Amino acid sequence: MSTVSARLDSPEGKNPPQPVPRLSLRENLVGLAEMRRDQLAFLVRSVRTHGDIFHMRLGGLPTVMVNHPDYLQHVLVDNHQNYDKDNFLYRATRTVLREGLIANKGGEPWRRHRRIMQPSFSRSSVADFTTNISDLTGGLLRQWEEPAGRGAVVDVTTEVANLALRIVLRALFGVDADDRGRRFERDFLEVNAIAGDFFRFPFPPLSWYSPSRNRLRQLIREMDGFIAYLIDARLARESEKPDLFTLLLNAMDEETGTGLTHEQLANEILAMIIAGYETSSNSISWIFYQLAAYPDIQRRVHDEVDSVLDGRVPTLDDLPRLTYTRMVIDETLRLFTPAWQTMRHAVDDDVIGGYRIPRGTDVYLNLFTFHRHPDFWPDPARFDPERFTPEEIARRPRHVYQPFGSGPRHCLGKHFALTELHIITAMLAQAFHITRPEGQAPVGFAPLITLHPKGGIHLRLHRR
Ligand code: HEM
């Protein structure tokens, strides 16, 4: 255990809080260059060298990185009132997502929107979406039969991104994505790359005029155009039952008696779509990749879906019995956490694990390094679904695993996403045996604002 973790043993208040250990000027300068070259390697090396809490310059800006479960619990849950999203990462993200739920700074505007949207994402509401998920997945699997028949390699990442976008649009707003959906995906991937670069090296500012900043503005305009098109399409027809769109449209602020403005509505829709398809589609890509990489694990998933489903399309009631499939999903979300980094801003002075956090500090939480913490995950880089048996889960402190975050700002779409991943993985396993193309180099990470497979995942499908 690192010396920094050991400090947790001394109760706060007994000893005066210490300043957070700082990287030297030289380490920060080397780090700035290394971060641009290979952000993940830099972060992994930094926590290995400096422990669970340290002050560093992230992209040149002062930040405190925390990497211990108790520290994340403190920031996200126990003292969450002291931490909002008025920080470097979310200020940059707000350029795209504006004041939608994910990037919203916090406080009453966030609470009000969360209250409005929460009921549509409860476990029972998600049940209504499952048929859409299995219908749309069935459609993609049918399309894949032809390339599978001739042994072709499929661009899984692109196809699955489109599937996840269509699922979120259909489930939440009742409309289908046409070619505009494909364009939106391409636009957002480019936005994600520009924003990821900016996070590594925040110059020039996003508001400046330079080729990449102009391009960003153009992409945002195109994405806004897509949202306007969706809203118009939705308004043009009656919905049989109240959907999220209707709820948002009719939402009233009890204090002022006013609803969401057109602009706020559009911002929420954009945020929901991006949150809803980007992270899920990356997860599905990585799940497929891991199944192809580990034939024994894939065989166990095949056996499970065959015995539980016996050829049927999975329903919500089947999911609790697809336990091994779920363990594969959980382990994939540990190692390939798509929403891999977040930040908070200390509103007031605080103490984390005996260290002083002055008001105004940006705190960086990185789930990529966190989910590889060697004190909690033996042989952390190894892919091993057995870590998620009920016994193993019970043996670990609860908050060492949080692909969906925790506290009041945890993922609104967690049940939606897990249901989606479970159904899609089970249906894929029913239909295909998947392999990696011969001689394919291992797929690396592209650390954008979300964590992508570099170059996408391409796999060979074989009909079962
Ligand atoms: C595997 C898929 C997903 C993962 C790993 C994921 C992960 C996360 C994480 C870690 C956060 C918290 C970020 C923070 O604390 O700063 C978050 C927030 C959020 N997620 Fe997800 N998410 C996924 C899918 C979804 C889906 C499908 C939706 C909606 C359809 C969604 C909607 C949201 C929203 C609205 C927030 C912001 C909540 C708030 O600030 O109140 N997510 N997600």
UniProtKB/TrEMBL annotation:
Cofactor(s), names only, from the UniProt record: heme
One function term, GO molecular function aspect: heme binding
Pfam families to which the protein is assigned, alphabetical: p450
Keyword Ribosomal protein recorded: no
Binding of heme, residues: 411
Segments of this protein annotated with the region Disordered: 1-22
InterPro entries attached to this UniProt entry: Cyt_P450, Cyt_P450_CS, Cyt_P450_E_grp-I, Cyt_P450_sf, Cytochrome_P450_Monoox
The organism's place on the tree of life at top rank: Bacteria
Transmembrane segments: none
UniProt keyword list: Heme, Iron, Metal-binding, Monooxygenase, Oxidoreductase
Family: Belongs to the cytochrome P450 family.
Protein name per the record: Cytochrome P450
Source organism per UniProt: Streptomyces glebosus
Lineage: Bacteria, Bacillati, Actinomycetota, Actinomycetes, Kitasatosporales
